Amino acid sequence: MRWLLIVFTALALMLSACGKIGGGEKIAVVNWDKVLQEHPQHGRLQNLKEEYSLLLDKRREQEIIGKTRMSNLAKLYQLKQNSKQNFLSADFMTRMMEKQTAEQEKLKQLSNQIADQVDKELAEEEKKLNEHYRLRLFNLRLKLDTVRMVPEERKKVEAELQAVQAERDGDRMLLMRHKIGLVNQRMEPHVKAMQQRLDAYALQLQTQMRAEMKKDSGKDDVVLQKVPAALRELLGTVDQELDKQQQAIETLETAIKKDMESVVAKLAKERGYTVVFHKYRMNVSAEDITGDVIAGLKKLELRTKAAEALNKKTAGAPVGDKSK
To answer: Is residue 131 part of a domain?
Structure first.
């Protein structure tokens, strides 16, 4: 007898109710979801799906933890770099102050030596200056002490004495300025040399500081570069396991579907069903073969297990054993 197996969606079933199925058709209906739940391998399928879901959640959790750790590690690295830089900057300032103090002490000693030398060079000129004013000042003071003068005359002598003293102080100041000028002139190349030494020392310290920062950052960079690779490797391993489980789920789902379709096709052929609906929502006369399909699946499972057991027994028998 001619037979036909059709799997309809809910929409297709409703369309069929509009008159496409003839009155002489022998129709059957199967509760596909119930048959699926009663399939012997349905429990295994659910377990596989639950394991897949748990592994997927674990994968997401590991990714979040890994990214969080990478972020925290990057922040710790930056904090370490800032602390290192602050330490090196403070060390730089301390060393520069020590160097500058030492250089200034040397410069001070040299300045005193040059000042002593200038004093010796201008000693004769200073002596002449003092001699030039010594006698004038002596005479004026002597005059004030020994000669009796009227107040007006005394005031006049006192004013002359103050004027000579001021003139002497002015000449002394000019001589002092001359000395200072000579000292500064002779100290100028030494000051420049000191500044050059300080600049060179600062450059040396800065170079050492950059090298120290680069050395530490190089070590940390290697660690930071390894972390994403390690995370990708870890997630890659989980992804491979997910792919295997997904493939196992799809393989089992395909096998279950084939079992169900095989039993339905067998019943349809044996009983002459023209159309077998998986489910329907229309007023149509159809035989519900859900229970028969479930029973057929159980028988199919028993035959499958028996065949597997026989294969294992045959595979385990010694070569040449004819008793099996």
So the answer is: yes
